[in-house]
């Protein structure tokens, strides 16, 4: 505990010394969420993280999340130094959608508007017409459908099929998945619902359709938080990364939150519902990256040609979100 306190106070001092701000995702360790808030930074979903990093005056951004979040920050603010605690913190959606294969897929379907999820590399975004996060994906696709557009969607097939069901849009889909949300199981969730008949079920749309079907509310991490605040219920079953539990419990001390069941929870992993890449962020590597700021260590670099092209679909989304 002493070491933890010491790390926290060293990070606070470094943030001031380096004119830096810490931006954390809801899935990272509670210490990093609380620290971001306590130091004038932000803990939020991927859309708000991108917006906050762009608008904040600090010249150095420390992005505690996964790689694509750091890249989005750099794409939007090339003049800023963007640091990530762990360069290998990736995402199965990003890894499962290599730029070359994706480009070929797009080339084969030139009649389609290319919409990519935020959880992709800068090079994939550079091939897209639109980028969306889970909090705005439905609205953007509904808007494109209204304009009579046919869509090529990548990479998350569950989020894609959810949007397709909700909007009725013509969507050709890349077959990626999030290794965390893909593990939620409908039969077990249904059994848990029977055990807690009064509970409301909150589901992130990266989960399989059979799980989404059992939801009382479906949405991004921030939409899940909002639903938990607004819904009149005492108990909630939550199908998203269990890093979310921290904010849910902090904001709703009188409500009970239960993790939705995943495959092999007890057999193969204690906590299947936690992203191994998000878990790579901790107090130690946040401090290290701040101490090394200016040396190039863990600094996000993106080829300028790719960055400038990747900015277009992100700006389009941010303009639309206003
Ligand atoms: P949000 O956009 O809902 O924050 O989701 C990001 C993510 O990686 C979900 O797994
Ligand atoms: Fe990617 Fe899933 Fe981890 Fe989110 S939780 S960063 S989608 S692997």
From TrEMBL:
<keyword id="KW-0408">Iron</keyword>
<dbReference type="GO" id="GO:0034628">
    <property type="term" value="P:'de novo' NAD+ biosynthetic process from L-aspartate"/>
</dbReference>
<keyword id="KW-0662">Pyridine nucleotide biosynthesis</keyword>
<dbReference type="Pfam" id="PF02445">
    <property type="entry name" value="NadA"/>
</dbReference>
<protein>
    <recommendedName>
        <fullName>Quinolinate synthase</fullName>
        <ecNumber>2.5.1.72</ecNumber>
    </recommendedName>
</protein>
<comment type="pathway">
    <text>Cofactor biosynthesis; NAD(+) biosynthesis; quinolinate from iminoaspartate: step 1/1.</text>
</comment>
<dbReference type="GO" id="GO:0046872">
    <property type="term" value="F:metal ion binding"/>
</dbReference>
<keyword id="KW-0479">Metal-binding</keyword>
<keyword id="KW-0004">4Fe-4S</keyword>
<dbReference type="GO" id="GO:0051539">
    <property type="term" value="F:4 iron, 4 sulfur cluster binding"/>
</dbReference>
<keyword id="KW-0411">Iron-sulfur</keyword>
<dbReference type="GO" id="GO:0008987">
    <property type="term" value="F:quinolinate synthetase A activity"/>
</dbReference>
<dbReference type="InterPro" id="IPR036094">
    <property type="entry name" value="NadA_sf"/>
</dbReference>
<comment type="function">
    <text>Catalyzes the condensation of iminoaspartate with dihydroxyacetone phosphate to form quinolinate.</text>
</comment>
<keyword id="KW-0963">Cytoplasm</keyword>
<keyword id="KW-0808">Transferase</keyword>
<dbReference type="GO" id="GO:0005829">
    <property type="term" value="C:cytosol"/>
</dbReference>
<dbReference type="InterPro" id="IPR003473">
    <property type="entry name" value="NadA"/>
</dbReference>
């Amino acid at each position: 505990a002493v070491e933890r306190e010491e790390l926290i106070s060293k990070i606070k001092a470094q943030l001031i010394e380096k004119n830096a701000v810490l931006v954390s995702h809801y899935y990272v360790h509670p210490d990093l969420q609380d620290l971001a808030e306590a130091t004038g930074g932000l803990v939020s979903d991927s859309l708000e993280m991108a917006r906050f990093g762009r608008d904040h005056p600090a010249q150095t951004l420390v992005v505690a999340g996964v790689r694509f979040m750091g890249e989005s920050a750099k794409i939007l603010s090339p003049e800023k130094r963007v640091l990530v605690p762990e360069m290998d913190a990736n995402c199965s959606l990003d890894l499962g959608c290599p730029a070359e294969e994706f480009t070929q897929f797009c080339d084969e379907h030139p009649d389609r508007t290319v919409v990519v999820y935020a959880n992709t590399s800068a090079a994939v975004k550079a091939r897209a017409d639109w980028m969306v996060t889970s909090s705005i994906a439905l609205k953007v696709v509904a808007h494109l459908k209204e304009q009579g557009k046919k869509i090529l969607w990548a990479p998350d097939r569950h989020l894609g099929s959810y949007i397709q069901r909700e909007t009725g849009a013509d969507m050709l889909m890349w077959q990626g998945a999030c290794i965390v949300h893909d593990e939620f199981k409908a039969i077990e969730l249904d059994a848990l619902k029977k055990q807690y008949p009064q509970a409301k079920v909150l589901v992130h749309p990266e989960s399989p359709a059979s799980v989404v079907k059992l939801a009382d509310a479906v949405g991004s991490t921030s939409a899940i938080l909002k639903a938990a605040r607004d819904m009149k219920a005492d108990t909630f079953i939550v199908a998203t990364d269990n890093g979310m539990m921290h904010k849910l419990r902090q904001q709703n001390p009188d409500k009970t939150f239960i993790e939705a069941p995943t495959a092999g929870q007890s057999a193969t992993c204690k906590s299947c519902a936690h992203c191994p890449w998000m878990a790579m962020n901790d107090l130690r590597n946040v401090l290290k990256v701040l101490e090394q700021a200016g040396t190039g260590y863990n600094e996000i670099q993106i080829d300028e040609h790719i960055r400038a092209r990747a900015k277009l679909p992100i700006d389009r989304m941010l303009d639309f979100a206003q």
